[in-house]
Amino acid sequence: MDDAEPPRWTMAQHLAAGSTAIMQIEADRMHVGPEPVCHHFYEGAPVDPMEVSVEATYRHLVPLFASAGVDFLPDRLEAWETVKPQTEWLQRRIPAIFEAAKTGGLVYQGWTWKPLNRQPIGASDIQIINNRSV
Questions:
Q1: Which tens digit of pLDDT belongs to each residue from 73-112?
Q2: Collapsing DSSP states into helix, strand and coil, what is residue 60?
Q3: How confident is the prediction for the chain on average, in pLDDT?
Q4: Is there a contact between 9 and 102 (Cβ–Cβ < 8 Å)?
C-alpha cells in the first residue's frame, strides 16, 4: 500500500459499516425481497493486464468463493449473490468472503446491494454508482 492508497478496512470496520447499511436497506419499502449484492475486491499484488490475463490469473479462485457462498467473476474481481442483507447474513457471509479474499491474494473492499431504480446501499471503502435501469 502506498501513501496515495486509502487504508484497508478491518473486519470490524466492514461489520460496523454493514450494520449501518442493513438499517438503510430495511427502511427501503420498495425493495422487500432478495436483490443483487456485489462484493468488490482489488488485487493485493496487481498484475499488468497488458502482459497477463486478469481472468486467467484469478480463475482458480472461483471454487474458493463458491465455498463462501458467492459467484466470483475473475475478470471483474467481483462476486455476486442475490439476497436481502440482514444481520445474520452479515455476520456469516462477510468474514467468509474477507478470508477468501485474503487467501486468494485479493483485498476485500466491501459489498453493495443493487436493486433496480435506486442508488446502491452498502458497506464499501469505494463509492458505487448504479447506472442500471429496467
A1: 999 999 999 999 999 999 999 999 999 999 999 999 999 9
A2: helix
A3: 90
A4: no
Overall domain count for the chain: 1
DSSP state of 131: -
Structural domain span for residue 103: 11-124
State pLDDT tens for residues 58-77: 999 999 999 999 999 999 99
At residue 97, what is the residue type?
I
115, 99, 42, 31 alpha-carbon torsion, rounded to 10°? 0
What's 84's domain CATH number?
3.30.70
Is 2 a member of any domain? no
Q: Which run of H or E residues covers position 82?
A: strand 78-83
- Return the DSSP state at 38: E
Check: CB of residue 91 under 8 Å from CB of residue 18.
no
